[in-house]
Amino acid sequence: MAVLTSRVGTLSFRNPFLLASGVWGESGESLLGAWRAGAGGAVTKSIGAEPRPGYPNPTIEEYGRWGLLNAMGLPNPGIRQYPREIAIAREAGVPLLGSIFGQDAREFSELAVAMARTGVLGLELNLSCPHAEGLGSEIGQDPALVGEITHAVKQAVKLPVWVKITPNTADPAEIALAAEAAGADAITAINTVRGLAIDPELGRPVLAHGTGGLSGPAIKPVGLACVWKIAEKVRIPIVGVGGIVSARDALEYLLAGASAVQIGTAVAFEGIGLFGRLPGELGLLLDRLGYPSVSDTVGRAHRPTVPAPPSPGRPNH
Ligand code: RRO
Asked: What is the CATH number of the domain that holds 26?
């Protein structure tokens, strides 16, 4: 069977399926549950300096299995409370990345230092929440600010730093390049795609916040295109996220240039049991397609070895 180990820079995971930030990762027990179910690792909920209740309800609109529109509003218990949750998962050996969000380079570096003390293996900087005033993608759309924050965090801690970037900008690859130039160890792409739902009966937006972020299978092509474009420009590893529900979806991301993938919305729909099924399914798929390992697939669609099928009605030169 194909080797499923996934390497993202200096970090190594038993398989490429990581729990994405924001879904299921609020408590130590839930992070541990994802690992016990078979995940390669997990990213915590995004944690800020102070506790935040999040936005009022409604915070989620569902589009069948195609997607979720959310505006949760970064609910989290704050960096002083959260380490006790991380301890539960870390003591059980879960490979964990700590996700943090802040307003500026100074706040990010302070959070990074506090998060590093918890024993996480690396950090993920959330520079991409699509509906947080003064946070997330509002700063993550500016390459200079992304560079400044990444640099400050890298100066503050010794851990690997992944920068999670937004698709809600003209050129996500430019943001990724700025993060790489500032010392990022990997790029996580993508966060949710900004969207809006309107309730015609009420004549107002469905979500209390108004706009939200779309996730789930509907955004897979957006995520793949971002990973593809970023892989053309940066040399650091990419972690793909957006709409993955099957081993085949994951392989598409790997072939586009991702070294590992994260799963969020599919966990919300299906539960963490999917981490027990996906690695085996990926192994079978890699065997069938002749890939000896996950690492042999990374970026392969940029240099295909199998000729394209002839297009109907056109000569195949
Ligand atoms: O909490 C949220 O509303 C949220 C976050 Br932090 C994020 O990064 N992405 C998203 O779609 N929602």
From this structure: 3.20.20.70
